[in-house]
Amino acid sequence: MSEPASISSGIAERYATAIFELAQDSKDLPKLETGVDALSEALNVSSDLRDVISSPVLSREEQGNAIAAISKHLKLIPALSRGLSLMAQKRRLFALPQLIAQLRAMIADHKGEVQADVTSAKALTKTQSDKLAKTLKANIGKDVKINATVDESLVGGLIVKVGSKMIDTSIRSRLASLQNSMKEVG
Questions:
Q1: Can you tell me the distance from the alpha carbon of 88 to that of 47, in angstroms, rounded to the nearest whole number?
Q2: How far apart are CA 88 and CA 80, in angstroms?
């Protein structure tokens, strides 16, 4: 792991642990999960939010005000809202994507679930997502929560990551494999 990525992960892990434990003590884990999902969706959809969390130009106060407004709009639980405010105050919002991933992993572990990161060329329908979760549950033996993203460059197929295992059935990887085998022949 590269040094900046490990620093972000370390920061995110400490904040996630504190937020998770506060939510667990106040019996707000279901609301925390809803808030984390809403925050993740906002981060995926809003380029402005991504700019706010990564901008070195914005002051701590500006970042704090933006996070407070987002927390209020998304109706985040106090533990998550205060954690995000503290991250803004300490200039640590750049670790927000890792914080979301850490919180999701902690919530899933608490519920006895495994998280699967699924990347597809097109958005999965509810039926496709449910069928994939059922298939993964049969293979893994635990409930599977799917974290779906779209990458149109895959052309077709899926990339599924569960823990340290990865299954790549994308057309892009098959084309790359075919290209490599063609190089070996000629």
A1: 18
A2: 12
pLDDT of residue 1: 44
CA distance 52 to 65: 11
Strands 143-150 and 113-120: parallel
**pLDDT of 185 over the 70 cut:** yes
Which residues are 162's β-sheet partners? 116, 165
When the pLDDT of each residue in the chain is averaged and rounded to a whole number, the result is 88
- Read off the DSSP letter of residue 141: S
For tokens 């914080």, name the residue: 99
CA dist 121 and 155 (Å) reads 6
Amino acid residing at 147: N
8 Å CB contact between 146 and 133: yes
Q: What tens digit of pLDDT does each residue of 124-158 get?
A: 899 999 998 899 888 888 888 888 888 888 888 88
Q: Which of 119, 169, 179 is nearest to 149 (CA)?
A: 119
Nearest Cα to 85, choosing from 114, 60, 51? Answer: 60
